[in-house]
């Protein structure tokens, strides 16, 4: 079921009725991989949209799969929170800064677990 449009002058409501259209504070969508729980955000132009962040699109490229074509993600079943960006892929920052960013060297996160869309 598609999510309802959000008009700029429309208030976001958590109340529901079977006779009225409901705008969710935490929108949910079902995908072929499982459910996603997102949020409502405002664009730089002031438009309210439904946002889903940190959605994986492939398995992490670990071991044998390193430097090979991506492997599709397995269904996760149930609802997955999609309110924060996923880990960054390892990459060089702009040339004038000369530093590496991402999670490959970060011991606080899973290595190479970076096959995520920032926002969809």
Automatic annotation (TrEMBL):
Gene3D superfamilies xrefs: alpha/beta hydrolase
Keywords of the record: Glycoprotein
Matching Pfam families: COesterase
Domain Carboxylesterase type B: 26-93
Keyword Glycoprotein: yes
Classification via InterPro entries: AB_hydrolase_fold, CarbesteraseB, Type-B_Carboxylest/Lipase
Keyword Glycoprotein: yes
Name under which the protein is recorded: Esterase SG1
Organism, as annotated: Orchesella cincta (Springtail)
